[in-house]
Amino acid sequence: MRSLKEIFESHTGRLLHKWDHYFEVYERYFSPYRGTKANILEIGISHGGSLEMWREYFGNEVNLFAVDVIPECKQFEDEKTRVFIGSQEDEAFLAQLKSKLPEIDLLIDDGGHTMRQQIVTFNNLFSRVKDRGIYLVEDTHTSYWGQYHGGYKKKGSFIEFSKDMVDQMHAWHINNEKVQPVNSITENIAGISFYDSIVVFEKKRRKEPSHSMRGTPTITPYVDPTLARESILQRIRKKFSRDKESSYSKQFRK
Predict the structure, then answer these.
(1) φ, ψ for residue 191 (rounded to 5)?
(2) Could you tell me the residue ranges of all domains in the chain?
(3) pLDDT tens digit sequence for 137-168
(4) Which residues pair with 40 in a beta bridge?
């Protein structure tokens, strides 16, 4: 099978536009869906060339869904491609869209690229992505451009929003009032990857992380004197002891 870059470079159909370095990222996350019956949603299709590229890459079994604010884009519908017309920053429209969509395996936000558009879309549609699905936002360099309401380290940019998601993903390990308690983001994001102009969210239902030890200790662990008096190992041993006591208590209650 041809790579996505090869398909792009030989494309002669409707106009499409992609940065060269995107294709390596695409292949990393998109290749598992080739030849499947996956549900794929692209936001922002413009001239419709990307729909042709996705169809050739993913195959005839995939179900394509698309959103664009331009009414003329409706012409790109076919029996395996459905196009919805509306604004990605209109929450009423997004609510209606969610009710009409199946669970999505792969969501690609290539829409208007403003901070509000990207954030509102994520807040409304991430929940529609299937467990173990992918939510990919491209052209995130606009987070640094004033004309898209971004700026370097500007609060409210999509990049800063995504950085906050990294903290929220770690909420189980954080005791700080600046980070929300464990919530649906913590429980449903397994990984966040940053690339030049792309942010990828890997959705996966999660439980509170746990750990355990195996084997026999063979050395005296080094304790960094700059750390708190109670070493990590001591805390682990205490937790193991508490868990063991709890296990015994449960047995006695049976």
Answers:
(1) -165, 150
(2) 4-203
(3) 999 999 999 999 999 999 999 999 999 999 99
(4) 64, 106
Q: Which residues pair with 191 in a beta bridge?
A: 202
Contact 104, 133 (CB under 8 A): yes
CATH topology (fold) of 4-203: Rossmann fold (3.40.50)
CB 49 within 8 A of CB 10: no
Cα distance between residue 85 and residue 97, in whole Å: 10
* pTM, full prediction: 0.86
Amino acid at 71: P
Spatial distance between the Cα atoms of 97 and 123, rounded to a whole number of angstroms? 14
Beta-bridge mates of residue 84:
67
Backbone angles phi, psi at 78, to 5 degrees: -150, -170
Strand intervals (E) in 69-212: 81-85, 104-109, 129-138, 189-195, 198-203
